[in-house]
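Below: protein 1.
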Amino acid sequence: MSVDVQDLDGRPVIIGGGIAGLMTALHLAPEPVVLLSNALLGTGACSELAQGGLAASLGRYDGPELHLCDTLAAGDGLCDEATVRRVVRAAPKAIKTLERFGVAFDRHPDGPLRLGLEAAHSHRRIVHAAGDATGSELVRALIAAVRRTASITILENMEARRLIVEDGAIFGVLAAGCMDAVALPTRRAVLATGGIGGLFCDTTNPLGSCGHGLALAACAGAELADLEFVQFHPTALAGPRRPMPLVSEAVRGEGAVLIDERGERFLAETPGGELAPRDVVARAVWHQLAVGHRVFLDARECLGPRFGQRFPAIAHLCREEGVDPATDPIPVRPAAHYHMGGVAVDAAGRSSVEGLWACGEVACTGLHGANRLASNSLTEAAVTASWVAESVAGALDTRRRRVYSTFMPPRPNASCIRPVISAALGIIRDGETLRDAVATLLPIAVHNTAASDPALVALMIAISALRREESRGSHYRSDFPGRDADARSSRLTLRSAMQAAVALSWRAPRRNT
């Protein structure tokens, strides 16, 4: 591909081709923008795998205050209430905006939107599209809208490798494709790069989702927040496929229950049962597996022969693994699914680096706290994209210049460090294993290899997990099982993380294993 960067000089560069990036580009129209995607649009993004929907208080007996209360409860004391209030109030309008962009949401035969129920929601408020293929439908419609929008220049199969910073401000984006590299001059960059699930052996995310946006932000000097909070989905389809197919929480919302190999329901006495907060359910499943049991999701009684009609994509995935969910329990296990932490941003999505914004899963807005409420993630991306776009548009920069850079990091690859990360940063953590992981990751992070950026992200998460000496939300420390009454949101920079990692490595050499 040949790119005349001079023609793109000064345009905002949006990095990421999922829902957050696509919607930010659309909201910026008619201002010319560059949309950078490391794959063909519609492939490789977490968004397209989303089975759950968007949470919005659209029901007759629901309202933003109820949605607010459920979100704060799930966030376990670390949500930013002002952000939560602002997002839940804007959610219904975001649904209408998506419909305007061409998304076809599921409706009842007489017209109203079909609203589903998921864990820790007090009301049915989950809006789906194409049954259990919401992400795919959203991406399809938004890509079509982007391709129709003349102001959006799409650079596919181009991966951002570094943000170029001068005097503490964004100066350009260094990107590489299959055959060439480009330096895009810009004073405005938006990270919309998704999450970190690809750092783990068991994940529902594309394996390329290994925190690349966090590495870009950290190397640019940005502050990151709440990195220790990684949500594990309790019910990924157990099997050899990676990423692991997700068995949506909506199945439990329809009445499916979790059982062991003897057919015993082990969450019967847990408040909320199968619809308890995800961290509670994930730990319960983990404990069953740890003592040698197998775990299944049983939808035979609640759905039976209707399963394929209600959840066609899940039914197809199950049958590919030799399971008929209408007559068989579905084998499941937890898998890394969503990152509540990310680039610390303000109400407009601005990071601590001038000219750098973040939107979607890569950002930490304060909405999710310690544990994301189900289906609030797509809602966050849809809502905040308009706020980010408004802020980017208001920071117009017309200065033209040429950017040169000689440093090109290799394409990230997390495969060699996944076992270390999975062991140290899983559902149950402890200080000794975390310290060992830091000692292993530090020398990898400081070298210029394909594993360096993923190791850097994992190192920062491990340092954050070590610093939080309590158990809260998705972060559970077996050596600190209690809660800290004065716990606050955590903040970290690359410099402070590296200083902490070096100090730990000097203080406690890695044990022999």
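Below: protein 2.
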Amino acid sequence: MDLNLLIEQTAQLNLSCDKHPQCFDEEVSEWISNNCPDWKKPNVRKTYMIPPTFHDIQPDNRGDLTEKRVFDTLEKFGGKTEQPMFVVHSHKFHELFQSLEKGSVKNDDAYWCRGETDFVIVHRTLGIIFLQVKAAANKTARAYEKAKEQLEKDQESLTILIKRLSTGELRRKEEKKIEQLGLSETERKKEDRKKQLILKELGRKVEAEMNTYPGFVVMPNCPRDKAGGRPGCFREDIDSAEHFEEWWQKNMHRAEEFSQDMYELMAIWFVGPRVLKESCLLGHVIDRNHSKLIKLTMDQLGIMTGDVPKQDIAGPAGSGKTWLLLEKAKQVAGKLRGNERILIMCFNKPLSLYLAKEFQRFPNVVVKTFVSLLMDICGESVYLDVLSDYEKKKLVDDCVQKLMQAYSDPTYKYEHVFVDEGQDMYGRWMDLVDLLHADSDEERRYRWVFFDNNQSVHFGSKYSIPTKIIKNAKLMNKVVRNTANIFQCSQKCLSASVGAELAHGIVGLPVKWIDSLPASTQWLSYDYYLQKGVELVKQEIADLDSKLVLRSDIAVLTSDKNEGFDVGTELARRFNIPVQNAEQAIRSPDRSCITVDSIRRFKGLERKVVILFDPPLDDEWSMDLNYVAMSRCFCLLIIVTTREKRRSYEEFTLELREGRQWPHY
């Protein structure tokens, strides 16, 4: 039965529209068309998650975690098998149930059918599919029966909805026809009785149609052998997109194909309440998540209020070390006495420019890179790239000796010293810091050293941080600056000994993999590889533009500086996309420009959206660099790579990493 032919629209006009009054259907259809291009075309096979991100969760909430597993599996399955469907998470319904026959129901016979469906799938060919998720691993029978009851309400609610919409439209047509015919009172009553019979028959057909829409209990924590032969989707079926595909093929069947008109109608009905109630535009989702991620955390507050003058602070990227350094140094800068000075030292030049800009209103705050400080002390230019490891260490030794000889010279003395990126320094840099810090017994003079206890990405060999400092360092192991999806992706690169944990329940957008970059071969020229790669990046930027993401919120990061220059040049020359490197973006930020630079130079900086251009995912010894690259991102991480490199990264395990003889800090 083609029920959609009886339904022309699903709601009243929206008179608040600025342009012209729109009905619910038009408003939602316009939103879907803008955000899900070509969704009405029968040959387009794509899965749309509504909303595009899983809601914020509490890490200890088993129900939320279980639903997220199902959300992730549906998203991966839909993308992998190109299912033409909308997956609507957490659909709330409330339908008033009453008889279709006019005047046959008393007021106390009507009731509201209310509830929430965990997942509604609107599939182009299979129709409406309900999924109710239960986290229970034990008490299977009770949880299963409760989910079955919820599924019955889901289907009853949809039945009521279709009856209401179809009979409402039929009534309007019949009443209009009677008015046009100009019938007598007797003839009107006869036509009315005929209409009631039609409505009754329609109701039976609606119920028959609704029985073809399946509903399933999903229990991801319950193995099938504990389910007592009950039908459903269990742990074995949901543990991977491949296993879910097998389950889907066994359970999803329909005698006749769902009509295109009904597909569009149901998409509008189920998608509408989510997208009109809350903004699902990618740009808005990113901004909303970013505003949550930059809030102060208890870990940071504890260190701020603990107020220990001299301490070493360790933590992984995303734990807010640079943010804490900024806030504490500003607090101290506001209370300087006389000619007191603050030294802030880091390794990367772009980060030093960012820090200097933050402190430009404080004349007694000096921001230096480690190398520029060495040049100031030794009195000559230093080209780091041409120095061997031994020469670098000797340079630091020479500076330490000079400071020891000029110990009373106030030129090199600072009452307060803050160091970021300590893991990237080399030689006797800790001795250098102690000599730069003004010798004083005053408890109010600060010397805070921040370092990442997982990585070091400067050129050359890794240099050690003394074991004593590592053991006594204050730990900031709660990651707060990345979403859960980004943290989960970067965990492969994160040493288990770091003990990093996510400090929030902001799931965020899924990591987007673009694995169609041509694989490197002896016949593939660099120019061709660059051209194809930049085309992929350009497509992502165009998509972000259409979804209201500011270009200044986007960074494209490459494995090395030269490649970054080439990518930026190609984007500007071929596609007229304005670009800046990291330093330019700090010195003269332009909202129309995206930032293009190397991973190393961008270290310590962050963006809402990061596009990684062919990172070294297949190199086990570059996992530190991959970790830095991924953790530069607040909200949306896009990885442009080859299928081979993606597979290598997915197969990489922490056990493999821990088994290597990695340098110890």
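Residues 3-89+120-280 form one domain.
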